């Protein structure tokens, strides 16, 4: 971000006070900050009391061997029991857990907590029948249908960590995750509905299974939900099992076993700065405490709220704020399968109106696309049920914030801009809707119990009015425990930068304004944020270089009005490829799509004769970003050959 944009941002002087009635009845009041600061462990112990523990813990936090934390040591619990059974036992079995809305109009289904308990028990029994034992990994590759949530909870119930792979990822991406976590079983569907048509999933699982086998890993069983009814080639009777033949026929009786608080709950893969995605490991007691507390506090959840988080369960937001947080809190939710604009552009707002959604949580990229389409579309719907709006995934620009509050929230609703990461597991920095005033574009301050700072290279706090690195200075319950199978990479990635100080390095840049409120500025590493999704430059470069015509590639994230950042690639072709042919750009874009998935497809690929490198051979992405964002190229004095930029800029302007 340029200094000019930054200082404009910091001049933001609009303020929105919490609505009086919300403040008067808020779940959390201002005292919580001081109480948590006085005694953070006591504070988190109190929050853990929201859960049902089969055995209480002996020690709240064991931080004897940092950065390896143990929260609620000695405690035992079952995550699925906490998300489902206990609500039924407390007499709330008839409460709707999910209003499921499929993409085809009229395809809806309400599932109560009592029904969810039966479904999860049946799926747990089926997984056991398929040979899954406590500790085995199960991959989930599904559309946004109730069975996806049921599968996650069934895994949690039997202590088999799940790894949910976003349904938009390619078979290659799925295969590498299956191999990395050695998944025994995959749960999938024949397909799902996207933009009005059935889009297949099962064939990608078949391919991924073959590829995983080539990598030396065997997937034993594939459990398949029939969602679209589309034809399936390649059914393998030794491996494939229909959900309706197995789960539907299974017993609804299943006794949940209590697991250690540190028992692995799931692995979620996310992009890092190298080509290989990192398997972020979350465990049970601390994670569930963090997810449940923040969902209750940040959204001011009340028993009669209808809550809707539009994320996909393939991302961490779906894990913490569709599955574990809201269900642990016994909330009623909307679960929507499709895209925002199918079959018509007002689809989301129609759902809000019909189901009287009161809390709505989405991403800035979606808000920006609605802004572009014009306010007539949401204005055609009664959105008066809304009372709290949330944002996550990337910085929300002040104009999008104000539009969201004004057009969607009718100026009544606080907007909570929530900063967190796959690694943090829970919201870390956010306003509290009944306590903090809103300031468009700022995530404000850490929530009670969380300690964050903005520091310089030495780890010294920068103070108000200055920028630096965002760090977390104290452990928190939902923190990642390690990178699956790679403790060294865990230490190196997050804890080595400020090792002596023991700070967690988030990889984001941030600035404190004169009031001490925090503005997240974006990644300081080679991770891009496209429509709120994390993508690694190196991962896309590796995909490009795997194409036979490509010699070298450099990828940057360039500013984009719609998606926040967009993938821009600079590619040097191999000599023998000549000019690559007329369709070379499209060919390479599709290659990336095939290797990683549609979200990684570059917006732009420029074929260049050279790449700008320092004398030590490091690609200077900063200069490429200048080209991609149509700026004058900055300081080139550290380049090994400073004429390279002229060649690249000439190529870029002629579109080659
Ligand atoms: C970015 C998503 C600004 C940030 C929950 C972070 C944000 C990365 C915000 C994590 C926000 C997330 N304001 N930036 N409110 N929320 N980010 O792991 O760069 O998919 O490091 O987790 O998204 O992305 P992840």
Alpha-beta content class: alpha/beta
Query: What is the overall pLDDT average?
Result: 94
Low-confidence stretches: none
CATH class of the domain at 531-653: Alpha Beta
Distance between the termini: 27 Å
Enzyme class: ligase
Keywords: Acetylation, ATP-binding, Ligase, Magnesium, Metal-binding, Nucleotide-binding
Binding site for CoA: 194-197, 317, 531, 593
Organism: Nocardioides marinisabuli
Structure description:
Helices cover 32% and strands 23% of the residues. A 7-stranded mixed sheet has the order 5-4-17-16-18-19-20, with helices on both faces. Strands 7-6-8-11-12 form a 5-stranded parallel sheet, sandwiched between helices. By secondary structure, it is of the alpha/beta class. The chain has a domain at 531-653: GMP Synthetase, Chain A, domain 3 (2-Layer Sandwich). The protein starts with a helix and ends with a helix. Helix 5 crosses helix 7 (146-158). The radius of gyration is 24 Å and the shape is globular. The protein binds 5'-O-[(S)-ethoxy(hydroxy)phosphoryl]adenosine. 5'-O-[(S)-ethoxy(hydroxy)phosphoryl]adenosine is lined by residues 270, 315-317, 392-395, 417-422, 443, 506-508, 520, 522-523, 529, 534. 5'-O-[(S)-ethoxy(hydroxy)phosphoryl]adenosine (WTA) binds at residues 270, 315-317, 392-395, 417-422, 443, 506-508, 520, 522-523, 529, 534.
Structure at a glance:
It contains 21 helices and 30 strands.
């Amino acid at each position: 971000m340029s200094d000019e944009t930054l200082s404009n941002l910091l001049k933001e002087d609009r303020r929105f006070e919490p609505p009086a009635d919300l403040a008067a009845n808020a779940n959390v009041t201002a005292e919580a900050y001081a109480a948590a600061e006085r005694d953070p462990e006591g504070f988190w112990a109190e929050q853990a009391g929201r859960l049902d523990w089969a055995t209480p813990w002996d020690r709240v936090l064991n931080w004897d061997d940092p950065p390896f934390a143990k929260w609620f040591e000695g405690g035992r619990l079952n995550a699925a029991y906490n998300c489902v059974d206990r609500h039924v036992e407390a007499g709330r079995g008839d409460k709707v857990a999910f209003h499921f809305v499929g993409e085809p109009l009229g395809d809806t289904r309400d599932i109560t907590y009592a029904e969810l308990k039966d479904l999860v028990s049946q799926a747990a029994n089926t997984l056991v029948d398929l040979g899954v034992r406590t500790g085995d990994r199960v991959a989930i590759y599904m559309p946004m249908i109730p069975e996806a949530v049921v599968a996650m909870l069934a895994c949690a119930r039997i202590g088999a960590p799940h790894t949910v792979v976003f349904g938009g990822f390619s078979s290659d991406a799925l295969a590498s995750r299956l191999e990395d976590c050695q998944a025994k079983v995959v749960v999938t569907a024949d397909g799902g509905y996207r933009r009005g048509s059935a889009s297949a999933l099962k064939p990608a699982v078949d391919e991924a299974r073959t590829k995983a086998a080539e990598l030396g890993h065997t997937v034993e069983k594939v459990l398949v939900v029939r969602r679209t009814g589309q034809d399936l080639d390649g059914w393998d009777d030794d491996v494939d099992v229909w959900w309706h033949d197995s789960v539907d026929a299974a017993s609804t009786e299943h006794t949940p076993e209590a697991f250690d608080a540190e028992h692995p709950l799931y692995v979620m893969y996310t992009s890092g700065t190298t080509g290989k995605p990192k398997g972020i490991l979350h465990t049970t007691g601390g994670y569930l405490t963090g997810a449940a507390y923040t969902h209750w506090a940040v959204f001011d959840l009340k028993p009669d709220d209808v809550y809707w988080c539009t994320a996909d369960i393939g991302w961490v937001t779906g894990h913490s704020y569709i599955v574990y947080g809201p269900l642990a809190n016994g909330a009623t939710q909307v679960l929507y399968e499709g895209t925002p604009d199918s079959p018509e552009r007002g689809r989301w707002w129609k759902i809000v109106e019909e189901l009287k959604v009161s809390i709505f949580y989405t991403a800035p990229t979606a808000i920006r696309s609605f802004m572009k389409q014009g306010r007539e579309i949401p204005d055609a719907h009664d959105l008066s049920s809304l009372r709290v709006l949330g944002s996550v995934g990337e910085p929300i620009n002040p104009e999008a914030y104000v539009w969201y509050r004004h057009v969607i929230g009718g100026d009544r609703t606080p907007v909570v801009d929530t900063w967190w990461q796959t690694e943090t597991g829970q919201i870390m920095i956010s306003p509290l809707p009944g306590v903090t005033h809103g300031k468009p574009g700022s995530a404000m301050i850490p929530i009670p119990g969380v300690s964050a700072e903005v520091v310089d290279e030495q780890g010294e706090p920068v103070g108000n009015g200055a920028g630096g690195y965002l760090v977390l200075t104290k452990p928190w319950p939902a923190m990642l425990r390690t990178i699956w199978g790679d403790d060294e990479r865990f230490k190196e990635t997050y804890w080595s930068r400020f090792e002596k100080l023991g700070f967690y390095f988030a990889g984001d840049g941030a600035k404190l304004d004169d009031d001490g409120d925090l503005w997240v500025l974006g990644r300081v590493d080679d991770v891009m944020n496209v429509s709120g999704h994390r993508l690694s430059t190196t991962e896309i470069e590796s995909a490009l270089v795997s194409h036979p015509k490509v010699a070298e590639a450099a990828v940057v994230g360039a500013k984009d009005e719609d998606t926040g950042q967009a993938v821009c690639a600079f590619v040097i072709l191999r000599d023998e490829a000549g000019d690559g042919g007329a369709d070379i750009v499209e060919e390479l874009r599709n290659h990336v799509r095939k290797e990683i998935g549609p979200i990684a497809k570059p917006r732009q690929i420029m074929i260049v004769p050279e790449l700008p490198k320092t004398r030590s051979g490091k690609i200077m992405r900063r200069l490429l970003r200048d080209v991609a964002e149509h700026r004058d190229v900055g300081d080139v004095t550290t380049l090994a050959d400073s004429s390279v930029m002229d060649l690249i800029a000439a190529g870029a302007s002629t579109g080659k």
